[in-house]
């Protein structure tokens, strides 16, 4: 996979945030991103609400043998940020200003999938907020969080 061409970038900048996400995730020739490393899969992409899943893997373990908290933090950052992105008009970007994560339970690294869901709370002209949650294969809450994003107009 290679970097996007100038023509591809120009096309993507004309898409709304939701259209961009749908196009980027569906593209077979897209550049690599953090989701590839995690085995991320899109569960749903709607305006203001997204859901992604990742498998737990032995390579994601902390020294105690359970899932490293950074995996949940990364999944939450992704779903909450993309929930914000899905509401933006063409040519507008965003960046995470703040991320708060609450860990609820230990997660084994047994190959089961975690599903993260992000929802916008408020999208203003310059700042947006969102909330997210992660559940395990049994539907039990394992982590939740909030974010504040800066909107780049």
Automatic annotation (TrEMBL):
Which family is it part of? Belongs to the thioesterase PaaI family.
Q: Name one GO molecular function term.
A: fatty acyl-CoA hydrolase activity
Q: Which InterPro entries match?
A: ACOT13, HotDog_dom_sf, PAAI_dom, Thioestr_dom
Entry keywords, A to Z:
Hydrolase
Provenance organism: Aeromicrobium erythreum
**Pfam families given in the database record:** 4HBT (PF03061)
Q: Which NCBIfam families match?
A: unchar_dom_1
- Spell out the PANTHER family in the cross-references: ACYL-COENZYME A THIOESTERASE 13 (PTHR21660:SF1), THIOESTERASE SUPERFAMILY MEMBER-RELATED (PTHR21660)
Keyword Isomerase applies: no
Name all Thioesterase domain ranges.
Answer: 65-143
Query: Where does the secretion signal sit in this chain?
Result: none
**What is the name listed in the Swiss-Prot or TrEMBL entry for this protein?**
Thioesterase
Keyword Hydrolase, does the record have it?
yes
């Amino acid at each position: 996979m290679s970097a996007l061409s100038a023509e591809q970038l120009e096309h993507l900048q004309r898409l709304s945030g939701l259209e961009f996400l749908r196009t980027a995730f569906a593209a077979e020739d897209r550049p690599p991103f953090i989701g590839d490393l995690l085995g991320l899969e899109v569960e749903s992409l709607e305006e203001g609400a997204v859901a992604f899943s990742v498998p737990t893997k032995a390579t994601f373990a902390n020294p105690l043998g359970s899932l490293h908290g950074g995996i949940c933090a990364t999944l939450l950052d992704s779903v909450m940020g993309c929930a914000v992105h899905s509401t933006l008009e063409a040519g507008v970007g965003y960046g995470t200003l703040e991320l708060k994560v609450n860990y609820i339970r230990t997660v084994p690294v047994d190959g089961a999938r975690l599903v993260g869901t992000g929802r916008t709370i408020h999208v203003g002209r310059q700042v947006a907020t969102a909330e997210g949650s992660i559940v395990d294969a049994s539907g039990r809450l394992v982590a939740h969080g909030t974010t504040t994003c800066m909107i780049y107009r």
